[in-house]
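Follow-up to my earlier ticket, as requested here are the two runs.
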Amino acid sequence: MSSSGKPYLPPGMGFVNWSNSNDECVLAYSKECDVGIDLEFYKEKNFEAISKRFFAESEVVKKAETFYPLWTKKEAYYKCMGGEFFSVLKNSSYPNAKIWNLQGMYKEKHEIALCVRSGLIQFNAVFLEDGV
């Protein structure tokens, strides 16, 4: 781990990041560039209050279905690019990066976001089940 808490591999081995929620974990790896990933399972919260506090004014939301896709993108971006966490949350754009929302194999409602530094245009997703 770096001094900022970002996981890293030895030089020349690639780039890695992970996220966990509800005892599940996702891992992102790239040979080419920095990656960030976030996994969140839906939970009831006061989404309007949270988004007012942490998101840009144009992004204030009231429902989980609009909150979690935004939150996971922002967290994946931060984990990929670094920077000041709260300024990343308040920003409504993602410069120098590509971000995707993915769906995993989990039965419970969830969001996964994957972020890579600009340049990588192809990726493979692999989901492993318990015991694999």
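Run two:
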Amino acid sequence: MRSPNRLFTAALLAAIALATPALALPLRAQGGSPAEVAATNPLSLATVRSLLARGDAAAAAGRLDEARGFYDQARDLTRRLLGFYRDLSGSFRGLDARIPREMDQNGREALTLLAQANLRLAAVFRRQNQPEVAVPLLVEVVKVMTPTSEEGRRAYQTLVEIGFATIPYTAGQPAR
């Protein structure tokens, strides 16, 4: 005989499984394309961009603690998305090349957004006279974007400006 807890759990899981397609119905009933549905999804790159924009507005208004919160949220969401994209890409590899290609593209865009969030958060810490807190963020940008990317160059230049690094990176620039 099954215990009441197991019966309750099984019934709850069955109810959730049955309700899940019904929960997705209103989005489909609105006639939205997959791209339109994705744009309204809170787990999306559009949400990360929105958080960055809200952080930018707060920073411009001098509300640095509020900006820091938005940038932290953007970083956290981006990291979650990176994991989801990586997992889905791996799951479909060898089955349908379109899906890993899309997930990999989303992952590259998410990495760029993560670098931008790190750079903005590092700028907030510098404005708050806490450059030592900015260092790990800037190093992460150089690591994930490489020193040859725009974000990587900016991050390394900031590390030089705050005194963490002393040799300027001049690759791709004329020697002085």
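The only thing I checked on run two: The domain at 33-161 is CATH 1.25.40 (Serine Threonine Protein Phosphatase 5, Tetratricopeptide repeat). Let me know what else you need.
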